[in-house]
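Figure S7 source data.
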Amino acid sequence: MTEIDFKAIDKKVYQILKDDRSYLLEQMKTEPLSISEKTGPRDLVTQIDKLNQKRLIQALSAIIPNSSFLGEETAKVSPLEDLKGPVWIVDPIDGTLNFVKQRDNFAVMIALYIDGIGKLGFIMDVMNDVIIHGGPDVNIWRDNDILEDPVDLDLSDGLMGLSGPMLSRNLNYAPLVEQHSLGARVIGSAGIEFMRIMEGRQVGYYSKLQPWDFAAGNILAPELGLVVTNLDGSKLDMLKSSVVLVATKKAHKDILNLID
Ligand code: 2AM
Ligand code: CA
Ligand code: CA
Ligand code: CA
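C-alpha cells for the predicted calcium ion complex:
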C-alpha cells in the first residue's frame, strides 16, 4: 500500500465536518423533526440522524477507495465482523435526545481505523462550532490550534461525567465515584463528555457505550495523556458495546481503586 497522507485526510474530513455543520443548522431551521423511538422514549432517532449519516458516508467514501463503514443509523451498513483495512466509524448525531429537546450539547463523530489501529478521530460540538481532531501521526487540534495535554488532576480535584441511568440506578458504583469527585455532571452526549475531558474541564466520564460512541475519543484522548479503558481497566474492543471509562491518569487510577 502506498504511504497514506494522514495530514491531508485530516484536512479533508475537517472540511467535510464544517460543511456538515452548515447543513445541520439549515435542517434545524427549516425541517420539522420526524422522531421515532428505537428501544424506548430515551433512545430516539430522527430523519436528520439518518440523512446525515448518509451524507457523511458519501463524502468520506471519496477519500479512501475501498474503505468500510460502521455507522449507527443505517440498515445498509452491516455490522462489521473485523476491522481489516480502512474502516470509518460514524455517529451522525451523538446526543440525539439533546438534539431533539435542547437543540444543544450534541456532536458529530468520525473515526478512521486502519487494520484496527486508530489513525484519525473527529468530534464536532455543533452548536459551539468546535472540532477536536487529529491522531497519532498528526497531533491533536482544537480547530486550528494544537491542543495541549490537560492537567493530570485527581478525581477529588475535578468534575466527573456520569450517565443518568448509572447515577439513578446505582450502577457501577456511580454514586460512590460522584462522592469522591467535586461533583457529577450528566451531559447526555459521549462526544461532548470526551471533549470536556480533553479540554481539562472534567477529570473523567464513564457510561455504557457503543463503538460509534467511543471510536473517535479512543483515538484522540490517549494522545493527550488520558486513559481510555473498560471499567475493569482492560483495553476496549472496537466491535463491542461496553462500559467505557475515560479519565486523567490519576483520576483513572482513583476510580479503579474505588470500584474494585
Ligand atoms: P446517541 O445519542 O448517539 O444514541 C447519552 O444517551 C449518550 O449515550 C449519548 O452519547 C448516546 O448516543 C449514548 N447511548 C449509547 N447507547 C444508548 C442507548 N441505548 N440509549 C440512549 N443513549 C445511548
Ligand atoms: Ca442513538
Ligand atoms: Ca452516540
Ligand atoms: Ca447517534
